[in-house]
């Protein structure tokens, strides 16, 4: 690991096995954190990430925990705490996108998106807070779609991410007495499995004619974890290359 500043610190990433979450796990491990992370469908990706972090000299723990299930979410926080000790930072990245215009959205897709992207985010933070150190950090992953300039077929996704941006403000106030900050990173189009089907379309629409690399989103998360970001709370930071300006 190339940075010893955070040695002995612990992070828990909900939804860390792939894409932006995996980039966050790697970045925090590089920054010196012991990192526990959850996954739900890809034990292969989760195991490979643990090995990758170990090869870099770091410590990672993969925990199977579905963000739609309250007891699994709680188990993840307890397992992270049991392995690495009191938690310094919780990052809630797990999220899903199911496209559908208003007439096409099924009840099941609606419920699933609300369950992972909203209910799961709140429950992950609620489960972690008792195990989080005073002065700790909570970071959620929202989306730039809340700024507007979305695409048809994204209304439910858009509402879930707007809920996250609103939620961090209330949570920031709840946790301010413990000097725990709560902030939200809002990525624009980023090269992951979610965007693999329409990358060319996104690149064409982008002012910089490119999408983000997941490491660029992880960099924003790392900012909120810095000691000198201790007075930043309730904020949403959009990282989208000007996509929604
Ligand atoms: N990519 C973009 O352009 C973009 C833009 C704006 C916002 N975002 C947001 O960024 C976050 C990550 O997106 P991504 O593109 O990196 O997605 P991704 O490549 O599909 O990865 C999603 C991650 O979340 C985990 N996950 C999904 N559902 C889960 C559940 N029910 N319980 C636990 N973990 C779950 C997955 O675990 P498994 O590997 O086990 O399936 C995986 O680690 C999401 O919140 C997304 O809305 C993405």
Automatic annotation (TrEMBL):
Pfam families in the cross-refs: adh_short_C2
Keyword set, alphabetical order: Oxidoreductase
InterPro entries: NAD(P)-bd_dom_sf, SDR_fam
SUPFAM superfamilies registered for this protein in UniProt: NAD(P)-binding Rossmann-fold domains (SSF51735)
A GO term, aspect molecular function: oxidoreductase activity
Keyword Nucleus carried by entry: no
Keyword Oxidoreductase among UniProt keywords: yes
Similarity field: Belongs to the short-chain dehydrogenases/reductases (SDR) family.
Protein name: SDR family oxidoreductase
């Amino acid at each position: 690991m190339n940075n010893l500043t955070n040695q002995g610190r612990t992070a828990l990433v909900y939804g860390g096995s792939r894409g932006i979450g995996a980039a966050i796990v790697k970045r925090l491990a590089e920054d010196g954190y012991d990192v526990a992370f959850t996954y739900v469908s890809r034990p292969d990706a989760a195991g490979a990430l643990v090995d990758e972090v170990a090869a870099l000299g770091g410590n990672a723990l993969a925990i199977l925990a579905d963000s739609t299930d309250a007891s699994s979410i709680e188990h993840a926080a307890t397992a992270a705490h049991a392995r690495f000790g009191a938690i310094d930072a919780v990052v809630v990245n797990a999220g899903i996108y199911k496209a559908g215009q208003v007439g096409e959205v099924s009840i099941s897709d609606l419920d699933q998106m609300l369950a992972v992207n909203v209910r799961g985010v709140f429950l992950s933070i609620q489960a972690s807070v008792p195990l989080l150190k005073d002065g700790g950090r909570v970071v959620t992953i929202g989306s730039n779609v809340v700024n507007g300039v979305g695409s048809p077929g994204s209304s439910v996704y858009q509402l879930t991410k707007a809920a996250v941006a609103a939620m961090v403000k209330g949570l920031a106030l709840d946790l301010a007495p413990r000097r725990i900050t709560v902030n939200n990173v809002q990525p624009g189009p980023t090269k992951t499995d979610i965007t693999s089907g329409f990358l060319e379309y996104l690149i064409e629409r982008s002012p910089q004619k490119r999408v983000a690399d997941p490491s660029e989103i992880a960099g924003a998360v790392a900012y909120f974890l810095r000691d000198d970001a201790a007075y930043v709370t309730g904020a949403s930071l959009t990282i989208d290359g000007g996509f929604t300006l």
